[in-house]
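Reading a protein record of the kind used here takes only a little practice. The integers have meaning only within a learned vocabulary of local backbone shapes. With that in mind, consider the following protein and its fold in token form:
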Amino acid sequence: MEVEETNSVDNAWAMKIPKFTPDDNPHGLLEESKFATLFPKYREQYLKECWPLVQKILSEHHIVAELDLIEGSLTVKTTRKTWDPYIIIKARDFMKLLSRSVPFEQASRVLDDEIGCDIIKINSFVRKKETFLKRRQRLIGPQGVTLKSIELLTECYVLVQGNTVSAVGPYKGLVQVRRIVEDTMKNIHPMYNIKSLMIKRELMKDPRLKNESWDRFLPTFKSKNVPRKQPKKKANKKPYTPFPPPQPESKIDKELATGEYFLKEDQKKAKIHHEKQEKQAQAKRVRDEQRQKDFIPPQEKIEKPTTSSTTTVDVDQLKAKMKKFTKRKSLK
């Protein structure tokens, strides 16, 4: 038996896979395969409306679909006429996408040979809920602009729903979508990956750069250590001791220490009554003091009389001024 030589493939994405036809498997399948998927309550109305279309598109591939509204499950299974062995996996993915709020028009694309789907779980990347919501919103972008740009560059339909991201499209695009989503949840902004995809698309048009490295054209992400906000009040840690803390005293221990344990019931009641009266008297005293404050007149400020400095008058100088004044008057 001769063994064919297999050469290395430079670009696996460029390979054309031959189409699988009924002539390739004329005898059909030997065993029946079956998959079931649960769906949430809010998807029940939509699934009831589009279920005739689901059954129609699956019947073309000889797959039976069942909708159980009581259990809330979607079931797909093969028949004797089913000739494609992988179509049941495609049908299972189709049911998963429908249960995860993907519209029928986009989910039905999974049944094509060159189209796949990927459901990415994003809740395990971040512990805090606030951080998770911020990074998930960063993936969507303002008014969904970032998500739309990812769809245009990867040629995939992307839906962010709860703790998962569902993607439908070609397999090469699904790899890029997963990388963008995981990097975003690891605190790398999606614009870095979007920019690198745009640059790669332009570089692919130039045949001269086919065998060269594109690293010098692509943006590099540098992680910055942003100082975290320190708490205002730092709790002083107590020195470590291997011994456990002392056991708190019980009510009986306290009574034994004060001597109340040996008192009779009448004496205990009388003591409690006396303590209660003392508390009431003290509270009454405080209330009376508060009431009397309104009747106490405020202290008036007494202004001290200002002492004017005594001025000495020169009599001779005054006489000379008066003589000059009389002379001027007589001349006039």
Notes: The chain has a mean pLDDT of 85. The two ends are 155 Å apart (CA to CA). The first strand starts at residue 34 and ends at 38. The chain has ten helices and six strands.
